[in-house]
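Lab notebook page, bench 4
Experiment: in silico fold of construct C2
Operator: M.H.
Input chain length: 193 residues
Purpose: comparison with the prior construct
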Amino acid sequence: MLLTGSNLTTGFALARRVYLPAISGHQFASDSYFDLFGLRSGFDVDPKELEAAYKDLQRRHHPDRHAMGSEEDQERSAEQSTLVNQAYATLKKPLQRAKYVLAQAGHAEASVGEGTIEDPELLMKVMEARELVESLADSEQLQQLRKENADQQERCIQELGSAFRERSWHKAIELTTELRYITRIGEAISQKL
């Protein structure tokens, strides 16, 4: 099954097998986006290794390389390129990667839903951070808040890595929800700057 558009976003659980359609008889299939890029499956990804594998796949499967091929080859090349781009976008961003890893582990319902904050302390922190972002107008204060948010995001990503390595799925789900909110706060800060 080729994952595209809405079924990629809402159906990570469908991503058990990833296919790059054949061009001139060459079929490429893998069990996951990690396999597609030749990476070890899991949350911890070396960004440089991912980028190098992405560029290599794009070089080999880019539609421009098949412009002189048959119409079918050109269409398949476009599908391959789209899939490679989607896989890269998923694995590049920690939040999307966490959702994908959870889905691969059979926790798709938790990874694609919005998730609610069950921890009252975290809920208060999120509410206070949102109020602070909305109340600040000074760019220096917003820059400082952005730095603090980036530090929180990095801490959460580190904890997520540990949770995934330990196969602590409940903790990984909680941290993915936390990362989602930290990311949104960062986006709100960026919009104000």
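Observations: The longest helix spans residues 139-165. The mean pLDDT is 80.
Next step: discuss at group meeting.
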